[in-house]
Amino acid sequence: MERPIRVLVAKPGLDGHDRGAKVIARALRDAGMEVIYTGLRQTAEQIVNAAIQEDVDCVALSILSGAHNTLLPKVVELLRGEGADDILVIGGGVIPGEDIPFLKEKGIKEIFTPGTPTQVTIDFIRGNVNR
Amino acid sequence: MMFDKDQISILKEAVDKENAKTQEKLQKRPERKKEFTTGSGSPVNRYYTPVDVSALDYMEDLGLPGEYPYTRGVQPNMYRGQFWTMRMYAGFATAEESNKRYKFLVEQGSSGLSVAFDLPTQIGYDSDHQLSEGEVGKVGVAIDSLADMEILFGGIPLDKVSTSMTINAPASVLLAMYIAVAEKQGVSSEKLRGTIQNDILKEYIARGTYIFPTEPSMRLITDIFEYCSKEVPLWNTISISGYHIREAGSTAAQEVGFTLADGIAYVEAAIKSGLDVDAFAPRLSFFFNAHNDLLEEVSKYRAARRLWARIMKDRFGAKDPKSMQLKFHTQTGGSTLTAQQPENNIVRVAIQTLAAVLGGTQSLHTNSKDEAMALPTEDSVRVALRTQQIVAHESGVTEVVDPLAGSYYIEAKTKEIEDEAYAYITKIDDLGGAPKAIDVGYIQQEIMDASYDYQKKMESGEIIVVGMNKYQIEEAPPTGLLRVDPAVGEMQKARLVELRSSRDNTRVTETLVALKKACEGTDNVMPFILEAVKAYATLGEICGVMREVFGEYQQSVNL
Amino acid sequence: MVNNIENRILENDKRAAARLITMLENKDPEGFRILKSVYAKGGNAYVIGITGPPGAGKSTLTDKLVKAYRKKGKRIAIVAVDPTSPFTGGAILGDRVRMNDLNTDKDVFIRSMGARGHLGGISEATSAAVKVLDIFGSDIIFIETVGVGQSEIDIVKNCDTTIMVMVPGLGDDIQAIKAGVMEIGDVFAVNKADRDGSARTAREIEMMLDFNKTLAWRPPVKMVVATENKGVDELVEAIEAHREHMLTSGAFTTRRIQNAKSEVVSLIKERIEQSILDNAHNEDKLSTFSKEIVSRALDPYTVVERLYEEIKDTIHIK
After folding, report:
1. How many Cβ contacts (< 8 angstroms) between chains B and C?
2. Chain A within 8 Å of C90 (Cβ-Cβ)?
3. Could you tell me if C235 and C65 are in contact, meaning their C-beta atoms sit under 8 angstroms apart?
């Protein structure tokens, strides 16, 4: 049988708006992926530890607190430090378009802003995981 | 009864006949959709007649404006007396910056302040806490101690304004700070008017800025009820919020059902703590969302009012009419805004404003067009406030009370939402009340199902959002968004260092030890918090003591 | 790519352990090759199963037990099994939510596993993960799973100590659960013991245990409130007592040999079954035969014989 893609859906930062994270978790599950959901208020360290132990193909970060420029690059950095930079990192949430180039430069492969159909995210993950 | 029985049966026959005839025609020329629904997905008939509302009794189910069951509004003359409070939620960066924005809003004709706190403040962490990294001043103003609060309200006379504070888990601490600032201004606490959100249950359900477990959280809330009933009598001690439940993806009926179920839990907790229902219930207020389906939303507010009045009277035996009146603040729906073609959001907000006003709101915050992307700029906040002013002064809907009453559709929908919400309340009662229903994840699961259903319908094109999944255009990324200076975090940290070296640390320790003892016992904690605040203990220190005694809430996730 | 797994896993490299678990879960032959090469290094971890009905608070209790064992300086691994949604292939695994603060402890390794509906089932994947985490150097491995079906029972019955978590107020559920499940509990924990009816629940369990007086080990029943960390130390003591009993009575080795036996048997079953089924599904033979069985052109016994005959010389176990 085909190996299911494993995705860690995490909420870095302190905001509690998990509607987007939960919707994407369900959509990825319905697309046949294994989703590891970690709940609110995750530090970059917690996210990276989970990503490594769960051996995920992708880390999907949802953030609406405005702290994305601080927290998202930190996740990528820590993954690199663990030699796990082959894990695809993507982000979503209330993120102004003008911040996206900076985040991509820092290694977040794609940012999905409000209104992105879940299918777009699913296709992106399928097309970009490294295994 | 609103209609004569015989007339109804004659009408029913006519309707059936017409329906049969039209269905035949529709076979040949089908309508735009197979099924018509409201924004929340509940079915909508082709038209409504007295048949659909024939079960209603005017005096029992509608009543006159300002009279039980308050379906038509809590006041006899509504906006003919005065308009709703135009209250713009604002706050960002430092206390100085936010203080400037408040003064700007008051100059522009805003009639009440509404304070947004940053996330560390909402979760009881100081700006120098590890988890505060990157969050300080982002979604609201950073408040670490009374010193920040003094700056926040500098030059704003607290006996003249009413202030709403969106604060929940540490609500008692921020309220204590407000009281302390007023005292320094020479304003006694009996004169203070305003609201704290103080609604922890919806934090567990939908908003996520909780700290303590359910039981101590409920105690903090009833402590506030008791303290304010004596010391701050004009203060609205809680704003029981459906707003965030709706934002999380609930339907309109769920918004009413879950919010009132939370309300019931607070009333029960207060009664259990020994308070008389009429001593605190008049100070309960509500907070609802306004989405785009104008008529469904108007029906929703009316249904909520009627249902709450009945609950307070029948279930809790309230005697004071004020205990039965559901008064509410409204905010236009943040989740209805699109990042695409943001100007379109102005139109959405206008429709939602109309819904709130036709539904009889007591105060209103209108979102700004750029809020799907960032905090609003001054210009976009002005347009949002002007939207309210245009509806108030130019639309004419304010000149008459509850103008949509008697519409067959509105009355049928009002009843339908009331019934559906009541069914949810019954289900939650069966589970042992809202806290238990949250604990087992029932409420979260219901919301999640509704939200996922909506998402799928939107992706299939069954639901159209203009500019997002239809009528798209190529757009350059927006510019000129409000940016919070990343230096704010460093500034707050420096201020904390300064504070900790200049205050009387012995007094801080004494007040914190006293607070800890109060938390461990059964005394009302408010006076102890007030003492600690006045000694310039920080929010993080105070909440730290409470975390130590109470522990922290563990999220329940049902996916 | 994660290279040189066999060496890295012995150096306590989390990434290597995690990847090897993935490979085994996916039945990657390379994974079995690696596991075989390091298998001899294992056997040092003690395996504790935690099971019970949905909503019993197993994840929270696991979290608290792990913290208690961390105080004793033990290195811990947790395998959190979520057997729900076996049909879509997808799953949402949410056990980590309740173990958040274990997440930054470098001596705790948590792995979530979903049932993927593949042959051999989740219990085989779990048992492979346990082998990896043992070799990786864990002192104690917790396996947490909901106790509702046969596959979950299979998972925990292989543990050295199995904790059955119960809660008051389940009513008839206790009756339902006792059949076939009660006997796998070595220690019972009545969680949420601050709730009404907890004493009654404990009594019911005791009564059920009394029916079986021949047991060499009489499972103790402990009251806990996991959310408040109450009774956890006592539960740890009970677990340790059982461990002591297992080691001194020889039951530990007996149980492990028994487990090895059943593992070999089930692996044989699974792998031969796989070979036969691969052939049966080839060119949709199975459907064709099945139609003929219904039309009475063939009978199921002949079909089985035929399918076996076709491949019997080619059976090889990967």
Report:
1. 11
2. yes
3. yes
Strands B85-90 and B363-365: parallel
Q: Is B514 within the bounds of a domain?
A: no
Q: Which of B357-371, B426-440, C168-182, C192-206 has the lowest mean pLDDT?
A: C168-182
Closest CA to B496 of B121, B71, B21: B121
* Nearest C-alpha in A relative to B472: A115
pLDDT of res. C314: 74
pLDDT band at C88 (very low <50, low <70, confident <90, very high): low
Contact B235, B228 (CB under 8 A): yes
- C135 CB contacts (<8 Å, ≥6 apart)? C9, C10, C35, C38, C39, C41, C42
Range of the domain at B30: 5-58
Q: Are B368 and B376 in contact (CB under 8 A)?
A: yes
* Dist CA B496 CA B491 (whole Å): 9
Q: How far is A114 from chain C (nearest CA, A)?
A: 22
> Is pLDDT of B365 > 90?
yes
Q: How is C222-250 classified by DSSP, letter by letter?
A: EE-BGGGTBSHHHHHHHHHHHHHHHHHHS
Residue B555 with chain A: CB contacts under 8 Å: 39-40
CATH 2.30.42.10 fits A6-128, yes or no: no
Same structural domain, B148 and B38: no
What pLDDT, in 10s, does the model give residues C19-76? 999 999 888 999 999 999 999 999 999 999 998 888 888 989 999 999 999 999 999 9
The answer to whether A55 touches A79, Cβ cutoff 8 Å, is: no
Determine, yes or no, domain membership for B539: no
Question: What is the Cα–Cα distance from B68 to B31, expressed in whole angstroms?
Answer: 41
Residues of C in contact with A42 (CB under 8 A): 100
- B157 shares a domain with B239: yes
Name the helix (H) or strand (E) containing A58: strand A58-63
User: What's the confidence (pLDDT) of residue C289?
Assistant: 92
Task: List CB contacts (< 8 A) between B123 and chain A.
Answer: 14, 41
**Cβ-based neighbour number of residue B276 at 10 Å:** 14
CB contact under 8 A, A53 and C94: no
Q: Do residues C99 and C144 make contact, with C-beta atoms less than 8 angstroms apart? A: no
For residue C24, give every residue at least 6 positions away whose Cβ sits within 8 Å of its Cβ, in sequence order, or none.
C31, C32, C35, C125, C128, C129, C132
CB C92 to CB B554 under 8 A? no
DSSP H helices in chain A: 19-30, 44-53, 68-81, 100-105, 118-128
| Separation between Cα atoms, residue B284 and residue B237, nearest integer Å | 6
ipTM of the complex: 0.93
For strands A58-63 and A6-10, give the pairing: parallel
| pLDDT per residue as tens digits for the range A4-33 | 899 999 999 999 999 999 999 999 999 999
- Give the nearest partner residue to B554 out of C55, C92, C98, using CB atoms: C98
Minimal CA–CA distance to C208: which of C231, C228, C180, C227?
Answer: C180
CA neighbor of B119 nearest in space, from B101, B138, B92: B138
Token digits of residue C80: 């959190």
The CA distance from C315 to C318, in Å, is 10
B474 inside domain: no
- Confidence grade of residue B502 (pLDDT, cut at 50, 70, 90): very high
Q: Do C55 and B213 touch (CB under 8 A)?
A: no
Assign residue B300 the CATH number of its domain. Answer: 3.20.20.240
How many other C-beta atoms can be found within 10 angstroms of the C-beta atom of residue B552?
13
Mean pLDDT value across residues B493-509? 97
Among B193, B266, B270, B271, which Cα is nearest to B232's?
Answer: B193
CA separation, residue C264 to residues C12, C257, C258, C302, C317 (Å): 28, 11, 10, 28, 12
Same domain, B323 and B401: yes
